[in-house]
Here is the input.
Amino acid sequence: MSGRCVVETLAEFGFWATPNTSGITQDSRGHAFIYTGTEEVYIFNLKDKKLTGILQFPTSVNDLIQSEDKQHLFVACRSAVYGIKLPHELFRLSPIDSSSPTELKITSDHLVTRQEGVLCLLTVGSALVTLSRRDTSWFFTVNKPREKPGVLEMLSSFSIPAVSDRTDERRPVMECVHLSDSSALSESHLEPTLFKLLFGIDSALIKSPVILCGLPDGRLCSLSLRLPGIRIIHSLEEPVVFIGESVVMETEPPCAQSLMAVGEHGRVVVIKTCEGATEEDTRQVSFTEGCVPGKVMSACVDKRCLYLSTGSDLLSINLAEESTGKSGQELIEERARMNNNSLPSPTSLNVCRVIAFTKPTCKTAGKVELLGLSAKGQLQSITLPENGGDGESSTQQQTQAGRSVKDLLSAIGDICERASNLKTSIKSKNQILRHLNQVVNVSFLLLNKTEGTVEQPIRCLATAKWTRLLQKDSLHLTCILENNSPYLLQEGWTLNLSVYPLSDSSQEQNASTNYSFPFCNLNPGQTFEVTLPLTAADDKLFPITISCVLVFSLKALFDEKQLASLLKGQNSTISLPLNTLAVDWLHALQLTTSFSEKNIAIHTRVNSSMNSVERFLKSKGKSKVKKADNKPFSACVKISLDLLIHTLVSKNANKETSPTLCATFLDWLLSEPHKGVTGHQWERTPNTAVLHAQGPNGQVVKLITKEVNVGVGTETMEVVEVQVESLFLAAVCGLHHAILDRIQTLVKRAPKTTSALRAETLDLRPEFLRAERLLQQVQDSRVSGVVGVTVSSGHVTQSLLKVYQDLRQHPLVIF
Here is the structure.
């Protein structure tokens, strides 16, 4: 700079101003608006050089700003934000023949939003952004106009934690930055490379306005209006007093090549793109830091220079990277200084005690004018001397053209990197979608059960087996999950098995034992095998039911934060019920083909005599209650010979070498799979019709099959009788139930046999009458047990016991 500054005092307001509470702004119609932290805003006509009006607000003024279209003036007070329409209010305030200013009292009619404690305002298009301090957070709000003129409504809000608890801090500052190729009316446009590097490729792609905010704790934050989140760009470690852009290229619209932030204690940070030291990193963001002497009161910037007022002096720093008029050693030294990221030395303009000024305006002959407010309340016009050697030389144009090419190459590199990241993200999401598609297909396959389906494509089978360890016999259940579906069961699946006694279904939740077995990558046609103990189950708990459920957890695909946003508190697991298994007394037997009478006598204990009702009640709770005498309990089941022949004997079987029908039936009872559990794999003795075995708790039992005739006189029919004998009533009852349960499945699949046709002609009327009488007794007992307030429970139990004993000792024939 050459020459001296020219300072002209336009008005004296007669108050002392402070940088934290005072400010000044200028509109395009030649009016200046001055506030000093009180309830008044002064309107000064720069053309006529006189005070034309005073706006009186309900509370003290913290900040004011014009809208981008210059049609409204927004004023932030301690209690609310007010809006004044321009220029109509000003025309009313212009005195024609009066030397005193016109006063206008601002009322609730000018209210635009009821936000308390707003410290800073910013306009972005038609939106008004406010910044306030609430407890321990800085709170941003974006307000847009309503249908009602002059009234704003909150569109969105953001917050960032405050570092300190001080309430007397310096006011924050805000600045809005647009991408250079956006259509915004604002003059703050930034060149694309720096915009992308600072604020991300996403903000650049959607051309989102970005708000820069300088906080009293020194943090420099960025907030994209169209993307969520607040980012910390830098920290000056001292209160930020100014944010702006400079080094403007002559493009359309003009765009700045650098950002700068100024701290209260003299620290200056210039942010720009620069050439890296290596060929691999050709573009990078440079943070050039420097310090000016003194405490900074206010700052502003134009296309090339940064102006700072320290109270004792007004300083100028040239930020342009041009070298017009320089050559040789001077050019080399300047480039070295730029590469070393050092801030140019400030130039003193010899103007003191300026605490606030407006954005510089360019006058004729290259002169720059500042409108400032002094600490004594003087409104001053400061004219700076013209630049020496100004002009857009061909060298600078070539430099800008080269920089544009580099910017394009940098943008291409950024897009390639972004595309690579997106490709990786898309690949990961595709894998998740394929996994979820398999889960949905499996769920539909298991939940969409149709009538007549024999078995599920995904099911469980089981095998009960006795093992001996440390001289102790243990019963284990091996459960096998079969995947006969066309789908792969990948990571995230778990097989849940719930084991509970069928006889205690009313307390199923309390008595059940749950097992979980995670697995992954179960291909179609493969199986998954697990083993669980059944030894802990008492014999009174048989038959035991095993409920099989297939469970998928979404935690295998998403993390906790993703699940919280997707499910919003809902369950993160999918449960698909499979089939149910049942282990009864026949499955739990320990088989042996020979058992001496001496072995039976060893297991016999003589108890005191008890009647049949007491034995029945005791046997439900204690399986080791036996008869007082040595005569065993017994139960038998009769089934027609023709039914067994049609269902168990092969048509091509050799009658001479084939085992007897009784032995075949006994072998079928023990080895046939039932309710998902396979039978015993035991060494059979040919034509064995008698079997000795032990129950779960070592009870000795005996199974006898033999052929007998039933009927009256000459009209008889051959049947096979299965008899169960044991000194333990619980063993007899459990085996009786298991045999009847198996015969039911045999009858369902058998055709109508000749014996059944003959039974219709036989004189079996007494048997049918007895069956009807027993059925009636059971029904009466059930009704009495539900309704009966007059019938004792002992009477009902005794009645049911008599029916059971009658059926056990004189069974009906099953055809």
In short: The longest helix spans residues 394-447. The mean pLDDT is 77.
